[in-house]
Amino acid sequence: MQVPLYQAKAEFFRMLGHPARIRVLELLQNGPVPVRELLNEIDIEPSNLSQQLAVLRRSGIVVSVRDGSTVSYALAGGDVADLLRAARRILTEMLAGQSELLAELRDTDTEADTAVQAGPPRR
After folding, report:
1. HTH arsR-type domain: from which residue to which, for each copy (predicted)?
2. To 10 degrees, the CA torsion angle through 86, 40, 59, 90?
């Protein structure tokens, strides 16, 4: 029995659902990066990074390239970089909406404070 598309998408996003994996993908957007540089940029243990890279490699999102004793990782295709850019745009819009709401709440609080300080309306 074939997995429904919505379930496959959910599995895909679940696979992306680890901060270290997202950080690896961000670092790989500009081209291959050696594992030692990934370790310098991501504050996790080497064994944990290895596990996260294995998850990304099994999913087919990244590929490993060996050059002598140096192992580098690269994005398997440009679509992942596009997805990360789209996520950044979505988050920016969400946060902009939240900051607008926060500003509106602060304005409302300031107006309410001013009204309380002025006291009850005079007749």
Report:
1. 1-95
2. -10
pTM score: 0.76
8-state DSSP, 71:
E
Residue in 67, 89, 87, 77 with CA at minimum distance from that of residue 22: 87
Please provide the size of the chain in residues. Answer: 123
Query: Is 28 in contact with 48 (CB distance < 8 Å)?
Result: no
pLDDT at residue 100 in the model:
86
Q: Is 55 exposed, middle or buried (0-12, 13-18, 19+ CB in 10 A)?
A: middle
The amino acid that residue 65 corresponds to is V
57 sits in the region (left: phi over 0; alpha: psi -120 to 50; else beta) called: alpha
Are 64 and 57 in contact, with CB atoms under 8 Å apart? yes
Average pLDDT, the chain: 90
Write the pLDDT tens digit of every residue in 34-69: 999 999 999 999 999 999 999 999 999 999 999 999
